[in-house]
Records
---
Amino acid sequence: MTVSTICRRLLLPLSSGAALGAALTFYAWQASKRVELTRVPIVVPGLPPGLEGLRILHVADTHFPANGESLERFLRAAKSQDYDIVFATGDYADTSDGWPVVVEAFRRLKPGLGIYASLGGHERYPGAHHAGGQRTLGGDLRRFLNRVRGSHRALVDPAPLIAALEEVGVTVLVNENHSIELGGELVHLIAIDDAYLGLADLEHALPEPGGDGFRLLLSHTPDGLLHPRAAEVNLALSGHTHGGQIRLPFYGAPVRHARSVDRIRTAGLLPISGVPTFVSRGFGTALLPLRLGARPELAVLELHRAD
Ligand SMILES: [Fe+2]
């Protein structure tokens, strides 16, 4: 066998593999932008009659980049949905550079019954602005590696983002509860901080045990429900897993960043600690702008009574 024959035999499979890889990457990149508008009817045991049919727009893991590239796509998707109220569960921007985009996104949502939000881990991830102004390749690479390693050394205070959101009408709740009236019913909105970063305090956020009122929990990660008192909650909304973001055929999601889901059931309506929990696949992407088998999602949850 000649050298040129060997080269030809090696090159053919190599170039075919490279072409297949490039095609798959392109497909996953395209898929990361094709948002699915889901409508999810949820039968909630103990739902008060006044909440029957309530439509919740669940904003999760938008991961807006600082250049606002996905903002109009998000607003178009939201506009095409009918909803009464917005509940949001964090990871709104990829880093603090995207905070203005987050504020603009929420400013332009106009639900009749308000917007309530908890925080995710990415609300603490510093962008170039917090890292001293100028973006450099080295700085971007360092921040990327810190995120891959889950380093918490350089977290930023999300207080300015919270203040800006409150200014456009968003009620941001951090390890606390807030009582509102919806459909003539008392609802305790409970929001915990990011359990992935160890910031969640459900004990502090919950209202006193017993008492009236429907209890709805906003927790960035479903792992926030891995708590002995989670069962006091009637319904929970979460995100964080991105539905795995990359799912392999027959295997499921190799990466989930949450103990409360498994590689097959990484999103959707899941019972976690006995609580019906909607885990959104989220709208954006983290680390790589790719999705495979887990399209981005903007969900409207429609609550129904069990009868
Ligand atoms: Fe996320």
---
Amino acid sequence: MNFKTLALSSALIPLSGLAAWADCTPALVSGADITCTGTTTTGLRDDTADGVSITVTAGAALSHATKHTIELDDDATVTNAGTISSGEKDAIHTDKRLSVLNTGTITGADEAIQADDDLVVENYGQILGADEGIEGGADSTIYNEGTITGVDDAIQVSTGAYIENHGVIANVYGGGDDPQDGIDIDDGTIWNTGTISSTYDAAIDFDANVADDTAPAEAAGDAFAASYISNTGVIAGKQGIITDHRANSEQVIENYGLISGWDGVALDLYGGDDSVYLGTGSHIVGASYFGSGDDYLIFDIGGAIETTDLFDGGDDFDTVLFQDYLFADITSFVWEGDVLELIFSGGFTTYLANWESYVFVRDDVVETYSNAAFLTAVPLPAPLLMLGSALGAFGLLRRRRKA
Ligand SMILES: [Ca+2]
Ligand SMILES: [Ca+2]
Ligand SMILES: [Ca+2]
Ligand SMILES: [Ca+2]
């Protein structure tokens, strides 16, 4: 080795060593409160370290070429205003009770963020996964005002999830054979004023509580807990909101925005007693299937709803309620097979199948009708309804059996 080479290598070794570590201080041990500035390419990795707090400052970049960039055990806190990325694995990978506050960019070649139960993410920046954007376990909480994307699910969480979205949560799958959802969830609460979408699968997908994912569809699993969705924004995908066809859980959906499925299904709620409230501003693109269970559909739309698609109550005793309409406001109705087209004065039109009870509410007046009311061109006076109902239901049953 000549002098020139020796000088070069001895100068480079300590410099590269310093560059790798000096930008994140102090050293990584359990309980450490670490701040990263500048560029660090060796990540912060100790999968036995608990209670570590990491702050990545604006302009700083923390990465690893081949491994999880941040890999820790429980109770980690990550505050990111810079960039956290991995060349081949997850950007952030921990066990339970990870807490992330992101105003920067978190990019994973696999997941952007993968953690277990009690994950908390507050996002105002970009969280981008080449597989999933965020994967969390039970009782995870995600608040989003930024962008969360995944080529697989943008967000995958299990039971007891709370997701509040004012930004974009999107599956951005662009080809291949495993399209996935905007949000994949077992049960929980979703508040949306932003956009939740999927390019080739459901915007929101509820899983079934089956131990073996290969159990055939239509084989009932135990129900997860009831879930609640409030939407004033956009929920759009190949389907809007669907449940696995083994999922007998209850979904309660309150909508004032767009729920859309380009493949023709806006809602597929399957088993359980599901409820859908459509308030003013509702726009439903695609049919809605309520499945088995005693389901409810409430139109409270202030005189207009933008949909010409079917609402199908499915099996069991289902109720559709029209707020601010009375039966006398129906100007015409017609059956096309099992589908009842109702046209109200003012033009509101809806298409209904497999509903057993029709309730009309205006001020203090509540009217309840069965399908019998729609078997004659002239609405029956109320005292005859009960008899008509029994006969009508029998007639419908016979018609169906013949069909
Ligand atoms: Ca359901
Ligand atoms: Ca149902
Ligand atoms: Ca039903
Ligand atoms: Ca029914």
